[in-house]
């Protein structure tokens, strides 16, 4: 009976420190979350439509090659113009650190998101300005710009709704005071999580915008536009 009692006591003695550590960590995380709750992060969402660049240096063949790389649409005809929006997103954060019950607590003070694009309109170098074909091509590319503008505005509203949820879900980073992980490394880990989750949202936006852009790049549409400028042939 004494042996059984000794074994039982020994098992409790081995398990108890782990339980204490787990409870201590949970307490520290709860305290850190309260710290974040009492000091809510500033979430800044910016957008940038970019300055439009015009390029008249590419040949029609080069534009076809660029189109094949940009969209899952095999071009089998001459291409007079092409719009590249080059959408992007940037996520930056300022992370605060404090001590909580023998642990280090890290939480966001400010998280900034920038979404935008850098638009470039390419016009084939064999098109002469002020001709019918040149003007029709410019109108077509302007439609692509308009779609990009509307798509970005829609995405902006989505980001305003969803990104605060991302920051809240990522939460805080808690480390033992003795951890060798530096404050910069802890901050980078939190920021990487924001970027990863924002990246998934951004991929959906790019897919949506690409689908919208492809709607006006149909063969029938190109044939119709070509029929408008028979006098240029």
* Number of E strands: 7
Oligomer: single chain
Shape: rod-shaped
How much of the residues is beta strand, in percent?
A: 15-25%
| Residues in helices, as a percent range | 40-55%
Low-confidence stretches: 1-20
**How is the main sheet built?**
4 strands, mixed
Q: What do the pLDDT scores average to?
A: 86
Helix-strand category: alpha/beta
Q: Work out the radius of gyration.
A: 28 Å
Give the number of helices: 5
Distance between the termini: 106 Å
What is the H-and-E element order? HEEHEEEEHEHH
Can you describe what's shown?
The protein has helices at 2-38, 60-70, 132-170, 183-214, 219-227, and strands spanning 42-48, 53-55, 81-84, 87-100, 103-117, 120-123, 173-176. The chain is rod-shaped. It is an alpha/beta fold and 233 residues long. It has five helices and seven strands, in the order αββαββββαβαα. 21% of the residues are buried. The protein starts with a helix and ends in a 6-residue tail after the last helix. It is 55% helix and 22% strand. The strands form two sheets. Strands 1, 4, 5 and 7 form a four-stranded mixed sheet that branches. It has a three-stranded mixed sheet with strand order 2-6-3, sandwiched between helices. Helix 3 (132-170) runs antiparallel to helix 4. It has one domain.
């Amino acid at each position: 009976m004494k042996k059984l009692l000794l074994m039982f006591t020994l098992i409790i003695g081995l398990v108890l420190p782990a339980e204490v550590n787990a409870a201590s960590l949970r307490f520290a995380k709860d305290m850190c979350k309260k710290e974040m709750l009492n000091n809510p992060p500033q979430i800044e969402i910016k957008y940038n439509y970019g300055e439009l660049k015009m390029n008249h240096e590419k040949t029609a063949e080069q534009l076809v090659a660029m189109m094949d790389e940009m969209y899952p649409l095999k071009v089998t005809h001459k291409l007079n113009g092409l719009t590249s929006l080059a959408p992007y997103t940037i996520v930056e954060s300022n992370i605060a650190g404090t001590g909580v019950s023998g642990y280090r607590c890290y939480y966001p003070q400010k998280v900034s998101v920038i979404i935008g694009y850098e638009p470039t309109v390419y016009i084939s170098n064999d098109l002469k300005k002020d001709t019918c074909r040149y003007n029709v091509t410019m109108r077509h590319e302007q439609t692509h710009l308009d779609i990009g503008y509307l798509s970005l505005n829609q995405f902006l509203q989505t980001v305003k709704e969803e990104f605060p949820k991302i920051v809240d879900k990522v939460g805080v980073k808690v480390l033992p005071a003795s951890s060798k992980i530096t404050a910069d490394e802890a901050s980078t880990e939190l920021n990487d999580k924001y970027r990863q989750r924002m990246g998934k949202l951004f991929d959906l936006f790019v897919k949506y915008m690409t689908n919208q852009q492809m709607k006006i790049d149909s063969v029938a549409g190109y044939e119709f536009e070509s029929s408008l400028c028979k006098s240029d042939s």
